[in-house]
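Model: Ready when you are.
Researcher: Fold this.
Model:
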Amino acid sequence: MKQIERYIFRIALGAFLSCLIGLTGVIWVTQALRELDLITAKGQTLLIFFLITGLSLPTLITVIAPVALFIAVVYALNKLNGDSELIVMSAAGMSPRHLMRPFLTLALIVSAAIGFLTIQVMPSSFQELRDVLTRVRGDFIANVVKEGQFTTLDSGITFHFRERAPNGALLGIFMQDRREAGKTVVYLAERGQAVDLDGQTYLVLEKGSIHRQQPNSRDSSIITFQRYAVDLAAFTPPDADTIYKPRERSTVQLLFPDANETYYKLTKGRFRAELHDRLSSWLYPLALGLIAFAALGDPRTTRQGRGLAVAGAIAAVVGLRIAGFAAASAAVRSQGAVAAVYAVPVIAILLSLLVAYQGSRVRAFNAALAARLRRLSEALPARAPRVRAG
């Protein structure tokens, strides 16, 4: 890269990083605020909170990075044009190919990063997020029982506690176990605390008693205790086999799915659409960067408005994304629509390159077409009175 190209690259890179970090941070905060109930209501640790919200970052980056690149290219070109640097570069004989090189380099770097995140990192983050949320929801004490309420489980266990202490301990515990027909076990305790030990969760009861009633007997035995541990694994139903959605599966699993899996047979189109959406995602940063360059890459004096060019570029980006979503949706229903998933960004790239390299000819053609339409519109009112007079 020449010195002037490195200068342009630094401007675009700085703008891109600022947009990416700023937009990702804002959206991540809004997502994190929605998960605050993990701490406030469900009693999870701060580490679990940051783990769950942090696993959404790869997805946010893949969505925001192409937009941040588009904004960065628009900003850099407007800055260069506003300082009359584009005009000086053009007067010095700098061709559009050399001017495009730093922007194209940045776009290729972003495309490579998006491809890696989409193909490798995102499926892993989705799968880990699913596993973490499953563990959180399986936390009986944090997510099932409610303060001051009697909660009855399908397994035949009724649980109640009076209130939750500031340190997370449960006060005033009542627990009735009627899983075995004719046999009832009641646990009463002043307080209890959930404890993890060797991968198992136990409820450690303090200062209480156990009331046991045997089958076919009215008599019950009472055992008092200072500390007693109850295995909470019995409180939750056995876990069913976890079925991962297409977006939660690795790219290799999408390329070579298990043809005998029932879920795959029912949602084969979603597997196909997810695979090709991943493989085509790296094309969109390249397309958005080239659209911005095609719209604003030509030098113009500061008296010439560039707002129309920016508006046209934004409209092209919106149309591109809508077409991409439509192609992905069509790929779910039809195998033949897979070609459209790749064709949409590729056509946008080719048209942007055409405008960038043949911009003067395209603008001359547009200007001639607009002038002809204007003359035609002016001629129609003049002919109308003649027709009425005749």
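Researcher: Now this one.
Model:
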Amino acid sequence: MITIIVLLILAGVSIAMLTGDNGLLTKAESAKEETRGASVQEARDLWKTNQEADKNTKDETAKTLEDLLNDLESQKLITSKERVTIEETGEVTIGSRNIVFKEKELTDYVKIGDYVDYNPTVSDKSGTLVETSKLSYSSPKGTGKEHGNGNSIQNFTATADTKWRVLNIENGTVELISEDVIKPSGGSNFYLKGTSGFLYAEQELNEVCKIFGYGYGADITKGGNYTVGGPLDTPITGRIEGTGARSITIEDINKKAGVYEDKSDGQMKYSDGTIINSSYGNTTNPTSNLLYPTINEISGYAGPGGKNLKYTDYMYDKSKIASVDVQNMLFNGANYWVSTRCFSSEPDAGYYHVRYVYEERVSSFIMVEAYAGSITSPAMSIEVSVGVRPVVSLKSDVIDINTDYSTEGEWKLK
């Protein structure tokens, strides 16, 4: 009996040494997992090195993440379940190693159309107010030689109650767009008119929108680019400096709609290759005594002359944008100017347009009709609201991705 008891005790000790938390079998299994984890991490490190080398040399020879996971799974270094974990979360734990394959990116959290808690009137997290002078702009009437809207003095003020939505996320930079159209003080339409309104439209729209780009989180190295002048002028380009805001452009909307200029034939096309307007790109040599808008005359026009005009006008409706959410964000029933100009022409006339979104489509308004010996400005016969849509660029790391968006309803800033 004593012998049997001793043998049972020894057996128990042996089993414990083999199978306990610190047992030989457990240690062997842990060592196996550590070795497997080390192999996976080494493969991951080599893959990341090759990815970085590709970026520096602009090659595309490195494996994709899918290729890497195929290799690891075929070598039985990861299980199918671990692969799914990596694909879903970007990381996996093997043994004591937490191996990160891909860092979480902003786009894993923040989506186009999301709301962001941006306030153009405060300069820091503590709520310090932006200088009052930066938050308002008085758009002058202007002349042919001086920028302005061509109609009358119109005043704008940036306020804290404007809501902002995500328009673009590219290379870590987030661009916001005002949810609603911004109008001059008093709620009237923002009128652009005549030769001055046409010549300086891009500048004036960016001047208005700049007042929204001084808030906390705005990237003040951005701002808006513009071109002023008419077909007789050497184009003058400029930039609104020191602000993170600009006016929306036709390129912003075209990008969402998949509209592009085909360099092979110079035509504007939808994403399926269909031509939007067969007249686009055509050049007309108008009559020699046509008048032209110009920044070299205080009246805003000069002539006669015979300058060739390239047809650049085209239109399309919101259905060309696949995402209904993006449609609603850009074509929300309100009408607004777009800081892009375009032209159309005939042998005996030239028409000078400023683009706008009107009745849920990309369109343009003729600011100037130029004929032989005369130049006219059509009346702004729009009875509905026409305003501006500022676009604000945020610094790449200012959005707090730890925000509980489902509860807060908007992304907070760090």
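Researcher: Key takeaway?
Model: Residues 115-408 form one domain.
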